[in-house]
Amino acid sequence: xxxxxxxxxxSTASDGTLAPSELIERAFAAxxxxxxxxxxxTTDGLDEAASAAEVLGLVLIPGVExxxxxxxxxxxxxxxxxxxxxxxxxxxxxxxxEFRAWRAEEIGRRLGKHGVPxxxxxxxELSNGRLIGRTHFARFLVKARLASDMGEVFRRFLTNxxxxxxxxxxxTLEEALGWIRAAGGEAVIAHPARYGLTRTRMxxxxxxxREVGGVGVEVVTxxxxxxxxxxFARHAREQRLxxxxxxxxxxxxxxxxxxxxxxxxxxxxxxxxxxxxGMPVAPVEPQAACG
Length: 291
Ligand code: AMP
Ligand code: MN
Ligand code: MN
Ligand code: MN
Hints:
This protein is 38% helix and 15% strand. By secondary structure, it is of the alpha/beta class. The strands form two sheets. Strands 1-2-3-4-5-6 form a six-stranded mixed beta sheet. A two-stranded parallel sheet has the order 7-8. The protein binds adenosine monophosphate and manganese (II) ion (3 copies). Adenosine monophosphate binds next to helix 5 and helix 6.
């Protein structure tokens, strides 16, 4: 069994393509012993995932990936080990889901004006009646042959300054941390290398995050290179944050990201799971940059 837990994954409750129970089955088959389901702004998949995990004897960590606006950018905060019945968390996520519902219609309207008809309906159909995210629009546009891959859709249609981009206000860092902590969870900055922040801005983000009670940063994640892992191991150490690891798996359509296929944490990292009961001791990768 893989001694490194996979602490960041998605199901059809948000923009993943496997149902929560299918995700658990695939994780189990891949040798993952501990898995967190962290859907975007919803905990709706957790019940189904928990039942499937119990049958197989896999440890499911209840989680969520909260969308945050920080300094006019979107930053993702993963909450782990939460009580998803907590009312503050539920109210907070409900507000984000309301914004998502409106935003999806607005993306559809804007793409319509740009000559892409029926995008809202198309995205909705791909969302199984659950949350509609930009990923669903991207899948629809690829299917409709309006772009050749997901990356192209984001570049041409869905990012800042592009026709289907809808700016908006997610949670503040303080709100997201308030919800996660109220629910007894531990907050982690997701895939930090993706934000394109300078070293100084990253230090500002991580510093503020720690001040409002954040505990970890993803050092190892599907979108990080080995260099990124060492960079963020250093950030984590400097900011006295723990290190997390997660694939950010969205489904078998992206074959370059697989459940539990995670490199070791660089030496000197304190794994976020260090004091969790029943967790194996994580092996580390020696490297001077982190020590
Ligand atoms: P949303 O939270 O609805 O704005 O959508 C964000 C999601 O879009 C991320 O979690 C990714 O799954 C996906 N995404 C963002 N950028 C890209 C990209 N360049 N290529 C493929 N998927 C992307
Ligand atoms: Mn996603
Ligand atoms: Mn994310
Ligand atoms: Mn994610």
